Amino acid sequence: GFRIQRQVKRGSNKAFVYTWPCKKALASIMAKIKAITRQGTNNPLSDLLRQINAALRGWTVYFRHGVSKQTFDYLNHYTWQRVVGWLRRKHRRANWKSIRRRYLATTANRLVPHDDGTELFNPASVPITRYRYRGTKIPTPWTERTKTTMAGG
Q1: What is the pLDDT of residues 43-75, one digit of tens each?
Q2: What distance lies between CA 53 and its chain's CA centroid?
Q3: For residue 10, what are the CA distances in angstroms to 4, 7, 42, 93?
């Protein structure tokens, strides 16, 4: 899942370990969203949103410990485009104004697809909790055992 790389931080000489979601993992969630939105348009929007939200929540919870904010923003944009495309296929004869009025609500200065109390999950709203790399400061059983055996022998 993660691409782990050590880089020098911009503006300093310190090197840090960064973890990004790998491209293969991003491609897999995008393929899953594409498969969900390519299903028929006979189901209501709320069913589609429940399926997409479940997939997005699980994926973002797994990848929230890395440098994932830009990836989550991109995933939010991609998902929004897929859901709106699904709505336009569902209502081919309706114009954008009527689709927007019926299915999209303005929340925090952005249009969010919603239906029956279910709205599209925003992956960018997941807080990033970074893993702090501590290197050799983490005690291991092997270092403790070698110290005790050397002192006792």
Answers
A1: 999 999 999 999 999 999 999 988 899 999 999
A2: 11
A3: 17, 9, 51, 52
